[in-house]
Every structure is written in C-alpha cells, then in structure tokens.
Amino acid sequence: MNCGYLVQLLRKNITNNKKLIHDYHLYRDDYLDEKQELEKLLFITTLNISTMSFEKIKNIVLGFSISDEEKQDMIEELNVIMTILKLNSINGTNILLDDVQNEVLDRFLNYLHEYILVRKDYNTNNDIDIEELTNVNEKYKSLSTKLNNPKNTKFITDLDTLNTLFNDNKLEENVKRDLLVSLIKYNKNIFNYKIGFTNNMEIARYGNIDIGEVKGIFKKYGYDFDRLDTGFQNKILEFGVIGKIKEVLCVLYQLNIKIDEKENGYFLMSLVLTGDKESIARTMKFILSKNVLVEKLFKIPSVFISEDNTEFNREKTNRFKIVDYSIFSEDKPYIVGTAERFRNNTLLLERYGLSLKSILDKYPQVLIVDSERLYNNLEMFLEYGFSFTKNKRLIDSSLSALTSIRFCDIVDQFIEVHPYGIKYLRDNLSCIKTISSAFDVIFYSMYYSNVLEGEDRAFRRIISNNREYLCLHGDINNRFGEAYMGITDTNKVSVTNTFIPKFKDQDKYRNILEKNKYRVIDVDIFDNRYIQKINTFSDDQEPLIYNFDGIRISKIKVLRIFNVLIKNGIMSNLDSFMFSVSYNTIISEDNYNKLYDLIKDAIK
Q1: DSSP assigned state of 259
Q2: What DSSP line would sit under 357-410, residue for residue?
Q3: 315 membership: H or E segment, kind and range
Q4: Rounded Cα–Cα distance for residues 284 and 293 (Å)
C-alpha cells in the first residue's frame, strides 16, 4: 500500500467534513426562538405579522427553500400587506385584505412552519462541535497539501491527526499498519533526497502515476515537464492517466502543434487531463479551416474538450474541473466541455456575417454559451430590429447582449417603461448582459421618471445613476450618489404604485413559461383573433409597441408569451391574453384597469 490510499482517505474525509460544516451553517439560526414566537402569533391570526418589522419579515422569506422569483413576489406582496395593516393600526381605518393577500399570508405561515421544523429536526439529530470539526478538517487539508505536492521536502510527523483519521474511519489494525509503513517509506525518500543520496524527485508519486514516467512521455513528444508551473505539475500527477497523457501529446505532435510550457502551461495541463485525440484534432482542424491561428484559442481550453469530459475523474472520489480563466473570472468559472457548442456557435454566427476571427477579437464569450440560447437570442435580436451591419462599431456590444439569459424580458422592459428606452438600447446593447432581471430597480426608476417628468433629462439622470457599465454616448456622463426619487430594490413596487394583476390560471401560465425558456413566434399567432383585434393599437411611429392611449406594451412580448401559452394547450381567452399583455409590465392599477377596458372593448 502506498500514500495514494492515504490521499484518497483524506480527500473523502475533507469532503464529508465540508458538507457537515456547510449544513451546520445552513441550518443554524440564532433567531429560531423569535421565529417560533412569530409562528405562534400567526397561528392565532396571520394579521399579527404586522408586529414585526418588514426587514425581519423580508430576511425570513429569503431563508425559505423556494425559487428566487417566488421570494421576490412574496416580499413585494408582503410589503403591500404590511403597509395596509400598519395604516389600519395608525389611522384606525379598516381596510380589508383581499383573498389573494390572505392566501399570501397563509403561504408565508406554511413556509415558516416548514423552515422551523427542518431546523428543529436538524438540531435534534446533530450534535456537532463546530470548532473541533473545523480544526480537524484544517489539519486534514494541511496533511493532504503536503502529500499532494510532488516537491514537498517536509517530513510527515503529525501522528495525532493520523490517529484521528484512522479512528474516524474505523480502520482495521492491518490497514493502519500498512498506512504507517507507507509514510515511513515516504519520509525515508525525503531523507535520502535531503542528504543528497538521490537528486531526483522520485518521492513524488500519486497512486499509480509516476513522475519519472510522466517526464519521459513529455520528453518523447518534445516537452519539458519541469518547465510547467509547479501547480500544473501537481495537478497532472494527481489527476492524470498515463494513457491519456500519451494520447494527447501524440495527437498534438501529429498535428504539428507545439504548446509553450511556460506561456500556455494551463492550456497544456487542461488538454492532457481532460482532452481526447478526436475532439482536439476536430477542433484544431476546424479553427485552421477558418484561417485563424490555433494559438488565439489557447486561452479558452474548453473549446478543445468534448462535453463528455466536462467533469474529468480518474476515480469516483477524485474530481477536477478546468476553467477558461482568460474570459471568465475565477469566482464564476465556465466549466470545460464546449467543443461541440463552439463549432455550432461559430457556424451559426457565420450565417449572420460574423467570422470567427472577428468574434475572437470582439467578444469570445459568445462562442461557448449554450447553443440553444444563442440561437433563440439571435432570432429575437432580429425580431426587435437590431442589426450587426448597421453599426459595426457596436458588434462587441451586440455579441455581449446575445449571452444574456433574459434577453427578451430585458429588451421588453426598455421598450415599455420609457419612450427613450429602446432608443438608448440600440446604442448600448451591452447593458443587457449586466442586468439580470426584468425587475431590476433601474426599470422602476425609468418608469417613474416618465410618470413624474416625462422628459429627456430625467431619463438621462436615471440611466446614468450609479451605472458605470452603461456607457452613455454624447454628454451623458454624470453619476449621482443617491437612488432616483429614493427608489430602492425593497420599495420599488410601493413607491411607483405598481399594480400586480391576478389571473385565474396564472400558476398554470407561469409553469408553462418556466418550462419554455426559449419562446419563438410562430406565424400562426398572427391569425389569432385577439392579436388581429388589437392591431388597431399599433403605433405608426414605433413599430415595436402597442399604444393603448399612452400605455406602452411591447408587441413582441405579447406575441411570444401568448404564442407559447396557446402551443401548450391554453385556451385563447381574455384571461390568458391579459396575462400575456401585462407580463412583467410595470403599471399602476388605474392604468391596468384602463388597459383592460380598452382590450375588452376591442375584442367584442
């Protein structure tokens, strides 16, 4: 038995302990007693929710195990409810909550009850000394780091940590003995190296892979293993497979591709760990066929690796992932396995007049996003009237926008909330990538600026407020330190008097939209009776909107939402149509009622 088994044992325990520590902090709640008291009050009457501050209620909702969208909806609805209850208390009024609001309170109570039960059950069944567990895990990691370093020259002498490891795993005596013998040999190799008995690092062995053999393979194909960064060497020795290393270096040799160990060491390491000869050869030839130097892709190792190798593992407990450091930050890595989508995306973008060379120069991230998302965004990009050819200066901005998960929802908001929105967007498409939600506070601010002031200057103040990434053209360059009119993420609905309409089958509609992320527009939808009836509200000056007596509604939004509902078996009626028209729309109750009446009269 060698130290490879000890390394595996340490890794398994470190992983298990990390989960225990994670769960401890996940289920620990210093304010659980306070939440239990609130639960008791709500069991008496849910109206007692007004006894707590909105901030505390908001933090409770953020801890529920529900989707982010449902959390946001519940927070906004509870804000309205608590405002009503506090007004009743202060003014002595008796404004009653409607059925929908009472249902929100019931759901809040159910989620709170579930939250408390889970944490009480965890506390009952888990008696953890978190300080001791964390301390032991740090010692395991320290020992693992030494054993994982092929150039370590420090003796392994921490017998207390080893005894803890042995006891934690209830190892039999013969296994303990064998592990200790392997450590004695390990320390002996280090001693021999220190006194000059040997001048190589044969002490650096991981399981079944030997550094001497690896160096020999590298040398055979014209590489010097020692020129690699020590960290890259360690990864290869820990996770590498001799056959895979041979295969990858051989195909690079056959393709006459030489990778500099110093300059592109990360790329070389990525290939020998997760590559295969078919994917590497296919991608290399594909790049050359586009008259692009393969070196331009060395900073994006994922495009040479098959999606089948997204999570490379030599053993089930031994996992390793590659990231494209050159174009994605370390805290948000793009995991390997994009060879197929790279080729698909390149060919797709070529159909729109964009060469691989120009994409690499402008915005290479677009080459490795989900191909279905890219295809859908390109289709809708044209539907909204955007173009790559009208203004070539904005190609990188356009490519950036195409990577957005919420492309259509965000464009719709720019169209609806302010008359200048779509005009601004045409010159600043890159901002789509930086806005993650149709409910971003900037849309509420833009909407409110139009309601209050309705002028160009107000819009410019909003769009530049604390938004360094929105690169405004011309003279718009002021930056303001405060939110416009005091609008923040927590009060945006109440300050703007946004009305959230309810629909008979809204849960069914939302479920359909959730399952159909990419919503194309079928030609048949244009023959729908409801669509034809509201064509009278089309705006001659702005082809992207329906103008309902000053209420701006995105045409494409209505078409794509209504289309996907009908395709999924929803009846074409006023309820489903109004849901499609008002989807994500920021609107007051008075304006919604006016919108409803105009549409109802139009479809008679």
Answers
A1: -
A2: HHHHHH-GGGGGS-HHHHHHHHHHHHHTT--SSS-GGGHHHHHHHTT-TTHHHH
A3: strand 312-315
A4: 9
Residue 207 makes CB contacts below 8 A (sequence gap 6+) with: 2, 4, 7, 8, 314
Pairing of strands 545-548, 205-206: unpaired
SS3 readout for 36-69: HHHHHHHHHCHHHHHHCCHHHHHHHHHCCCCCHH
Question: Which tokens hold the place of 177?
Answer: 């003995």
For 392-414, how does the pLDDT look when each residue is reduced to its tens digit (9 = 90+)?
Answer: 667 888 888 999 989 999 999 99
Nearest in space to 602 (alpha carbons), one of 523, 524, 554, 546: 546
Structure tokens at 120: 């009480």
What does the DSSP assignment read for 496-557?
Answer: TT------TTHHHHHHHHHH--S----GGGGG-HHHHHGGGGB-SS-TTEEEETTEEEEHHH
Partners of 545 in beta bridges: 554
- Do residues 255 and 284 make contact, with C-beta atoms less than 8 angstroms apart? yes
- The burial of 585, by beta-carbon neighbours within 10 Å (0-12 exposed, 13-18 middle, 19 or more buried), is given as buried
Contact (Cβ atoms closer than 8 angstroms) between residue 179 and residue 6: yes
Based on DSSP, count helices (H) and strands (E) in the chain, helices before strands: 28, 6
As a whole number of Å, the end-to-end CA separation of the chain is: 83
Looking up tokens 């900037």, which residue turns up? 442
Residues facing 312 on adjacent strands: 320
Q: pLDDT tens, 525-565?
A: 999 999 999 999 998 888 999 999 999 999 999 999 999 99
Give the alpha-carbon dihedral of 502, 507, 509, 515, to 10 degrees. 150
Give the Cα separation of 45 and 37 in Å (integer): 13
Structure tokens at 332: 């948000």
Looking at residue 533, what is its pLDDT? 94
